Amino acid sequence: MRSFNVPARAPEPRQARHRSRTGGPIYRIRLIFDRYKGTFKGMEGEARKYFTDISPRSWEHPADRAALTALKQIPGMDEVLKFFIGGTGEKSIRLLFMASAVRVTQRQFSHVYKLTQEAASILDAPDMPEVFVTQNPSLQAGAVGVRKPFIMLNSALVERFSEEELLTVLGHEMGHVISGHVLYKTLLWFLLNASIAVLRLPVTQLALMGIIAALREWDRKSELSADRAGLLTIQDPDTSYRVLMKLAGGTQIEHMDIEEFCEQAEDYDAGDNLFDGVFKMLNLVWQSHPFPVMRLAALRQWVSDGDYDAIMGGQYQRRGPEEKEDIRKDFQDAAREYQDEFRRSKDPLAQAMSRAGETAENVRKRAEDFFQSVFRGDQ
To answer: Hey, how many other C-beta atoms are within 10 angstroms of the C-beta on 250?
Structure first.
């Protein structure tokens, strides 16, 4: 971690609202470390900010919200969810990790435990999820669960990532948990890994294929939201960019350069002709995540647009009774995001779509029709 700043007077303990696995209260990580008489530091040596009552809508990507809204409306989804929640899906996954991985506690991977507390405190999570470290050489992490979500970290991440990078990853996964992504991510994991014969789902094979395709499409959008949550946790854009570079090229970061990687992202965006745009879509369709260069470009744009700085300055949506889902606004926001993305892009296919000159209402309607057609289980 970064160096500690020694204050003239130790702060008074302040209890967090989330609780530990054992049910007892836990204190914000900066106060747990009060024995060092210091606070964790973020970018440029400043103490990290804690976002009290922050709503996940503050970091959620518009396309994520629109895709999830459409996903909930596809035929057969309610039946699959009821079957899954009422069955043993979550329990079987949890037992799998209880048997084959190491649960993070104050005595096992204690540094990861403290970082998890830090991430939960910064994003003001209602509860601190459990974390499991599983033996795996790939640089991956995930969050699954229904009633009691948990985070899984591959051992390669714990071994090869710095503590700042691990905090970014934990903030990313915490964002999935707080945004309510884990129910659908768990459903997708179960549908992809369990035998169809064993599942005995109350839907046709064709409808199930549509549900899986819809879940994959939404899942990629949700990663853009979680990347923002990871940045809000670490509060240092370069660290977030470095994590994405490692996911693309491995852990030898001394042989990589952030600016060069950003130029690579711009080159990928530009393309040579309309066919490049088609190839990009075909390459992406079977991926579980957007490609790292795409994620980096999207995250940099969010920072450049000023939304990140606004949240850091305390301007963010709070949780509360007035907070409600606005389906029409979600589609409008997604359409506006696509308009802006096409306008900024140098990709010939995107520019051709941008030059179509549609009105804002037409774009909104086309975005709504697009998501509903993608997430329609009978196609």
So the answer is: 13
Q: What is the pTM of this model?
A: 0.73
Ramachandran bin of 264, using left for φ above 0, alpha for ψ from -120 to 50, beta for the remaining angles: alpha
CA-closest candidate to residue 119, choices 73, 151, 158: 151
Quote the radius of gyration of the chain (alpha carbons, Å). Answer: 21
Which residue stretches of the chain have pLDDT < 50? 1-39, 195, 197-198, 327, 331, 338, 342, 349-355, 357, 359-361, 363-364, 371, 374-375, 377-379
Span 324-352, pLDDT tens digits: 555 455 545 555 554 555 455 555 544 44
Between CA 109 and CA 136 the distance in angstroms is 16
Cα–Cα distance for residue pair 221/217, rounded to 1 Å: 7
E strand residue ranges, the chain? 15-19, 25-27, 102-103, 130-134, 141-144, 150-154
Q: How far apart are CA 20 and CA 1, in angstroms?
A: 22
